[in-house]
Amino acid sequence: MSATSIRLHNCRKAFADGTVAVDDLSLEIQAGETLAILGPSGCGKTTTLRLIAGLERPDAGQVLFAGRDVTSLPIERRDVGMVFQNYALFPNLNVADNIGYGLKVRKMPRAERERRCAELLELVGLQGYGHRAVHELSGGQRQRVALARAVAPRPRVLLLDEPLAALDAQLRERLRSELGQLLRELAITAVFVTHDQGEAMALGDRILVMERGRIAQLATPRALYQQPANAFVANFIGTLNAFAVLGRTANGVQVNGGELPWSASELPGTLYCRPEHLQVTSAPGHVRGRLLGQFFQGAQSRLLVDVGGAQPLSVDSSDDRLHAPGDLINLAVEPQRVFSLNA
Ligand SMILES: Nc1ncnc2c1ncn2[C@@H]1O[C@H](COP(=O)(O)OP(=O)(O)OP(=O)(O)O)[C@@H](O)[C@H]1O
What we know:
Elements: E1 6-14, E2 20-29, E3 34-38, H1 45-53, E4 60-65, E5 68-69, E6 80-83, H2 95-105, H3 110-123, H4 139-151, E7 157-161, H5 169-186, E8 189-194, H6 197-203, E9 206-211, E10 214-219, H7 221-226, H8 231-236, E11 241-244, E12 247-248, E13 252-255, E14 258-261, E15 270-273, E16 279-281, E17 287-296, E18 301-306, E19 313-317, E20 328-332
Parallel strand pairs: 3-8, 3-9, 6-7, 7-8
Antiparallel strand pairs: 1-2, 1-4, 4-5, 9-10, 11-15, 12-13, 13-14, 16-20, 17-18, 17-20, 18-19
The structure holds adenosine-5'-triphosphate.
């Protein structure tokens, strides 16, 4: 089955208590695209996924698959595969029977089913595990079985709700890259919900950042990071330093700890820059403050510098020099790395 585009058109979903989980949401997901849905708890990520799945019906608006209105179709008639955080495998069936379940329901002949199961076990790196009981598998292995089961019937759309959240950090990272590989191999349209920005950036062709049931921004990971639409998105993707603007100077603006380059005629209330764009310098830089701490992270260190603002500045430095807490640190920034944002 070839991949399918998905369109949400003015979708709204409120619950009985009046909570508006999804508020007039319109977006289009290309055929074969992987869309990550990211946002704070309660912003409507899971509800959006459930609207696409057919597990919820919108109060208003339409859901279209390849241009066809599927709004009133239940999940079993939408041709979607789903993977949940908690595996949701059948505990009384072995691995092969779990994977083959959807195929059996669709009355695929046994020999063909077995062939497809073997192919899927190989795809998820579990060759020879067909006869294992579910309780004999690790968390990561269970999640691979859940994936294999979801894609076994070759669905048009794969939906994943925090698929890696239950795994420990190391395993999550490994399975993340395996999942990315798998999604590319399957060339399936995939939508996954996560609250992990690293996961969203690594797996999503585009990321939908949601805020209170609406789109805060829908863009590629790179565009979200480099051109965040507003402060909410910028704070959600990566770390952001905020400088309250205190007034104009000859070449820029006055901020806590010094002066930032700023040539635009409008004078925003806050200016921003990313931690990797602040450079520690021995010459007088733009701002100066006292080191609160230095955290070694391997290829670079994260420095926290107090310039007297509301929050200490975060600075990423690949310079190996060790500073001591309390040291005075000079920081410089290239003018084009300083930006303002809509509130
Ligand atoms: N069945 C329901 N009945 C009432 N309110 C609900 C129901 N399901 C979700 N909500 C509410 O709708 C809003 C959106 O919920 P949703 O689960 O979509 O958010 P989420 O972004 O996935 O959150 P999380 O990251 O915490 O899982 C929340 O305020 C939630 O409490």
